[in-house]
Amino acid sequence: MKDIEVILQDSPGTLADLCELLAKGGVNIEGMSVTTYKGECPIHILVDDAGQARKILEENWMEIISEREALLSEITDEVGALGKISRRMADNDINIEVIYLTITGDLALVVDDLDKAQWLL
Q1: Domain enclosing residue 93, as ranges
Q2: Which of 3, 26, 102, 117 matches a 20 to 30 Å C-alpha distance to 110?
Q3: Residue % of the chain over a pLDDT of 90
Q4: What are the backbone dihedrals phi and psi of residue 59, each rounded to the nearest 5 degrees, phi first?
Q5: For strand 40-47 and strand 2-9, is the pairing parallel, antiparallel, or unpaired?
Q6: What is the pLDDT of residue 7?
Q7: How many domains, the chain?
Q8: b/e map of 31-46 (b: 16 or more CB within 10 Å)?
Q9: For residue 61, what pLDDT is reported?
Q10: For residue range 20-58, what is the model confidence (pLDDT) as tens digits?
Q11: Are 51 and 11 found together in one domain?
Q12: Residues in domain ACT (predicted)?
């Protein structure tokens, strides 16, 4: 799966517009992380069809900041589960650059060493 990052304006309707554009183009959003900062809204979108998502975003003048492979991992709903995963990565010199949950409850991670991280999970 691909994690695509875009930055939108922090205003009502921009997220809805993005989601509707992707849906209209047949792209399923598998996960998302949204924050706001100083009038902007950095968004990470986990999509099932990165090529189609990229095409839609570019056709609608949305700048893609990054497009990176995301690692998916099951995570248990228990105290310390995320700490164990992040500690395992840290102890093996892997930097977690982006992390969020998917719509199915899996963990989506963008890391600086995908192959090594896959082996650890």
Answers
A1: 71-120
A2: 26
A3: 92
A4: -65, -20
A5: antiparallel
A6: 95
A7: 2
A8: bbbeeeeeeebbbbbb
A9: 87
A10: 999 999 999 999 999 999 989 999 999 999 999 999 999
A11: yes
A12: 3-87
Both tokens of 63, joined, read: 């700048």
57 with 97, same domain? no
Query: So what's the pLDDT on residue 69?
Result: 96
65 and 75 together in one domain: no
Report whether pLDDT(102) > 90: yes
3-state secondary structure of 72: strand
Same domain, 85 and 45: no
**76 and 57 in one domain?**
no
Do 116 and 85 lie in one domain? The reply is: yes
Cβ-contact 43, 33 below 8 angstroms = yes
Please name the residues in contact with 107: beta carbons below 8 A apart, sequence gap of 6 or more.
72, 73, 74, 75, 82, 85, 99, 100, 101
